[in-house]
Amino acid sequence: MKEIKVEIIQGRGSYYNLGMLQGLLHKGTKLEENHLKRRKRSIRSYEANQRQAKTYYDLFAPGLWSELEGLSEGLEWSLEDIVHEYSGYQQNWDKTGCSALMQNGVYVRNYDYHPKTYEGRFLLFQPDQGFASVGFGTRMIGRMDGMNEKGLVVGYHFVNRRRQTGGFICCTLARFILESCETTEEAIAVLERAPHRHAFNYSLYDRSGNAAVVGGIR
After folding, report:
1. Cα(77)–Cα(85) distance, rounded to whole angstroms?
2. Got the DSSP string for 181-207?
3. Per-residue pLDDT tens digits for 97-106
4. How far is CA 202 from CA 6, 50, 63, 83, 102, in A?
């Protein structure tokens, strides 16, 4: 059996400092090496308009743009490269399918990702502005799933690749929800307003027991 390690990362403070923390922790690591290799493909496969991406961040989660800026300093990458690789705007996502159970105050999610897609990072973040949250990290600032301090949980589930449009990938949309929403209804409103890159369903469960599965197809 292959051993799987998980790095637990805790952070409090400004979004900028949280981003810089991640950059400093992963500068020169195997994770950065893998991401640099991925960039050779991602540069060819899509473009990310920095101005348009910031417009959406200002609308849905303005603090996260500061996290990208801090990440840029910590990793010593240009902000343009950071936005292209980690903002989640216009990026591509591997085909995956995960199941979830929401019942009796418990949210359980089964991962069907290939092991090579795991970053092995479990983050506990408490920004100065925005809700504290816990969850597995991916694409650096994104979350594979998570729960925030208001008891709202979000996960996502692949649907198809038949219609790829301009917008954000699932792990960034999950972060938008965790940063700003208290209830399932508020999360649904974000998913209805935000542009989606790929067709995913999003499972939502709040502290009042309100559950929903929302189709993120645009």
Report:
1. 10
2. -SSHHHHHHHHHHS-BSSEEEEEEE-T
3. 677 888 888 9
4. 24, 26, 23, 24, 12
CA separation for the pair 166, 174 (Å, rounded):
17
Query: What does the alpha-carbon distance between residue 143 and residue 194 come to, in Å, rounded to a whole number?
Result: 17
Are 86 and 64 a contacting pair, CB within 8 Å? no
The pair of structure tokens assigned to 210 is: 């309100």
The Cα–Cα gap between 215 and 54 comes to 24
Give the integer Cα–Cα distance in Å for 157 and 97.
Answer: 5
Cα Rg of the chain (Å, integer): 16
Which residue's structure tokens are 């418990």? 106
Residues 125 and 137: beta-carbon distance below 8 Å: no
Which DSSP state fits 156?
Answer: E
Which two tokens mark 129? 């502005």
pLDDT tens-digit map of 28-85: 999 899 889 888 888 887 888 999 999 999 999 999 999 999 999 999 999 999 999 9
Helical residues (DSSP H) of the chain, grouped into ranges: 15-26, 30-45, 50-60, 62-75, 79-86, 170-180, 184-193
Direct distance between the N- and C-terminal alpha carbons of the chain, in angstroms, rounded to an integer? 41
Structure tokens at 179: 């940063």
On whether the CB atoms of residues 155 and 191 are closer than 8 A, the answer is no
- Whole-angstrom CA distances from 94 to 158, 183, 199, 200, 203 are 9, 29, 12, 12, 19
